Amino acid sequence: MTLNEMASAANARFVLDEGRLPVRESVRGVCEILGFDPLYLANEGKAVLIVAGDAAEAIVAALREHPYGREAAIVGEVREGGSGVRMRTLAGGVRAVDYPVGDQLPRIC
Predict the structure, then answer these.
(1) How far apart are CA 17 and CA 95, in angstroms?
(2) Would 107 be classed as within a structural domain?
(3) How many structural domains comprise the chain?
(4) Could you tell me which of 3, 87, 7 has the C-alpha nearest to residue 43?
(5) Around Cβ 14, how many Cβ atoms within 10 Å?
């Protein structure tokens, strides 16, 4: 949802790479069993940064030096072609990453 809001406000297209998303295997496994998409689950303590491409590697390296940033990753890029969020899948396709439909899981906090 965060990226969709940002894409809409900036009239930009974000293209994520599914293979680069830092989703723990335990989370991925539970999501597969229960039929959830980890992109639509609450995930407190995370930050989404959109930075110049030539600065991205240095920024990620700096973030990884802190314990809270050890899983920092470059997960996609900004592209031309209208606003929205797309994902290059592990199978080689591209899918839309839209706003969630229906009820989300209750937040426990």
Answers:
(1) 11
(2) no
(3) 1
(4) 3
(5) 22
21 touches 75 (CB < 8 A): yes
User: How do residues 2-37 score in pLDDT, each as one tens digit?
Assistant: 899 999 999 999 999 999 999 999 999 999 999 888
pLDDT, tens digit, 9 for 90 and up, residues 54-86: 999 999 999 999 999 999 999 999 998 788 999
Supply φ then ψ for residue 47, to 5 degrees: -130, 145
Q: Report d(CA 51, CA 22) in Å as an integer.
A: 18
Q: Which two tokens stand for residue 43?
A: 């995930």
The span from the CA of 40 to the CA of 99, in Å, is: 9
**How many other C-beta atoms can be found within 10 angstroms of the C-beta atom of residue 24?**
10
Tokens of 7: 């894409």
What range does the domain containing 7 cover? 2-96
